Amino acid sequence: MNFLPELWNYIKKICLAVTFIAVIVAGGWVAYIYDISKKPQIADKQLIVEGDNALNIGRYADAKRIFEAEFKANPQNKQAAWSLQIAQIREKLSQPEFKEAIDTLYQQNPNDAYVNLFLGDFYAANDQPDKAVQHYEQAIEQNPKLAEAHYNLAILYVQQNNQVSAKVEALKAIEISPTPKYRNNLGTIYFKQQNYGDAIREYGRNKEYPLSSLESAKIYWRLEYLSQALSYQKQAVEWLEDNTIMSKPDNQEAWYFEIAPKKNIELISLNEKKSYAYFCLSVSFYLQGDMAGAENEVQKLRDLKVDRQAVINSLLTADLDALVQANGRFAEQIAAYKKLYL
């Protein structure tokens, strides 16, 4: 019977070994679960990156939608909560409470690139360019991928008639994100410099982007190539009337125009953009002597019944005044057109 104690010792050793292995496995599993709980899920990370990318190129409505979805799913995600505040506050830029709200965020985190970007926007809008440049440069230093800061700097430099610096900043924005808005801005800088060939080439890089076609047409007006202007405007109208094309994010953005020093106009809605395009097309018909064609396009914009038609009229008036200044041969025709329709 000597084998019984030996068997019992053997069984105890096996039990101890099994228990030890079980403890290790269980401990490892607990540690794994704890580690996973501390890490954001891959999908969460992807949403944060997607939202930041939208902020970087000025698509604040998209950023707001993304961060709202992430914050709703994960209320403890502090980064999503902060970024949602950033996306929401940009909507208040033109409202009196904006400065107080952005100052509050600045006190919480003066090193946030978007906060400095928006402070730059505020000072630029309130004719304090030195402060605007300071905050834009801080934003770029804090976030080198912030294309919107370069874009806004370029616009500010254009307003200051500093075309060289404007071109540099416009090119930096394109290098980060070659979106149609940024390319169109560079084309407009070339346009202001009267580098018409470079402007048309830059505008031409934007496919299915009506604004660039309309800007190209203005150059052809000045060069007296009316058939080319007409062709570009017809292309713009065709795109504007295509719902699939106009549903693209690039075409959801407002169109920005500087009609005089420190005087800017934005066309926001699709109908505002259409009204402007119809008006431009009617001018080309009129300058070619096609009065029926001109009247037909004007009737189209009247049928739209745009609330801010007076703003669009002001924009076209500025375009036509600039045309006459650049090419006096059109002075008589433009005066007659303005008398009829403006």
Folded structure, characterized:
By secondary structure, the chain is mainly alpha-helical. It has helices at residues 3-38, 42-56, 60-73, 78-89, 98-108, 113-125, 129-142, 147-159, 163-176, 180-192, 196-204, 210-222, 226-240, 243-246, 249-252, 270-287, 291-304, 309-326, 331-341; strands spanning 255-260, 263-267. Among the domains are: 44-92, no CATH class; 178-342, Tetratricopeptide repeat domain (Serine Threonine Protein Phosphatase 5, Tetratricopeptide repeat). It is built from 19 helices and two strands. It has a two-stranded antiparallel ribbon with strand order 1-2. Helix 12 packs antiparallel against helix 13. 36% of the residues are buried. The model is unreliable at 23-43 (pLDDT under 50).
List keywords for this structure.
two-stranded antiparallel sheet; 342 residues; Serine Threonine Protein Phosphatase 5, Tetratricopeptide repeat
Structural class: mainly alpha
End-to-end gap:
118 Å
* Count of individual beta strands: 2
Helix content: over 70%
Largest sheet: 2 strands, antiparallel
The CATH homologous superfamily of the domain at 178-342 is named: Tetratricopeptide repeat domain
Give the topology string: H per helix, E per strand: HHHHHHHHHHHHHHHEEHHHH
Task: Supply the number of helical segments.
Answer: 19
Low-confidence stretches: 23-43
